[in-house]
Amino acid sequence: MPAPSPHSRLSADGPVLDGIPEHGRVPRYYAVKVELLAVIEELGEGAALPTERELCERFEVSRATVRQAVGELVLEGRLSRRQGSGTYVAAPKLVQPLALVSCTEGLRGQGVRPGRTVITLERRPAGRALAADLRVTSDAEVWHLERVLLADDERIGLESTYLPVSRFPQLREVFDPRQSLHACLSEQLGVVFAGAEERVETVLATPREALLIGTNPALPMLLTHRVAWGPDGVPVERVRSLYRGDRLSFLTRLGR
């Protein structure tokens, strides 16, 4: 195996191979973006970015070049725009483990206060795709719990959880919307989670989802689909979680 390039690095913070394409020509906006990363590091979280005019003079480039560099950093979650105020250095991204833990547990592990706002808790027919995942008939009823996910009162995602009504007929009576659903299932309903399968992809939010999460529909989102089962191998829940790509990343540990 060839030795790694002295310029390469595995990092969530900086460019790989310094962003140099094979032909060796670096786009001007990208060079400005790399310089801005150093500026962001110096300023620190919450600091205001210099104005466009100041950045144009500092890097001797056009406003269009600065806007493209800043726009990419906003999409990546390194900067945040506040309407009528300016552009600021964003807080570090939250990290959600890809493991058998809920979003609530993942946030608490980072010293962040989790929260949730219930949008709906309803009974509905499973339909073909959901029935296949939960191993119920397509006309069987399932609970649909939809919640906006919060981190220190900041909206970071939207979660839809589906559970068979036949298995949890009393869910509405025992579940407190202010608490973790997983805590309710394990502590009050005796559920033991033994395993899960999860798929992650990038999407754009629908207009409704963007409104509920309070994000720009053009910003990339991280979408996860999870089916979890108990020791008997029978599915317990299916969860669809949509997270802001500028505020959250995923972490998993691999091994043989």
Q: How would you write the strand order of the largest sheet?
A: 4-5-6-9-8-7
- Helices and strands, in N-to-C order? HHHEEEHEHEEHHEHEEE
Helical stretch tally: 8
The tally of beta strands, per DSSP, is: 10
Secondary structure class reads alpha+beta
User: Could you name the CATH homologous superfamily of the largest domain?
Assistant: Chorismate lyase-like
User: Total domains, how many?
Assistant: 2
Q: Return the CATH topology of the largest domain.
A: Chorismate lyase
The CATH architecture classification of the largest domain is: 3-Layer(aba) Sandwich
Q: Round the mean pLDDT to the nearest integer and report it.
A: 87
Radius of gyration from the alpha-carbon trace, in angstroms: 22 Å
Shape from CA axes?
A: elongated
Low-confidence stretches: 1-12
* CATH class designation of the largest domain: Alpha Beta
What composes the largest sheet?
6 strands, antiparallel
Strand content: 25-35%
Helix amount: 25-40%
Report the end-to-end length measured between terminal Cα atoms. Answer: 20 Å
Give a brief outline of the structure:
This protein is α+β, with helices and mostly antiparallel strands.
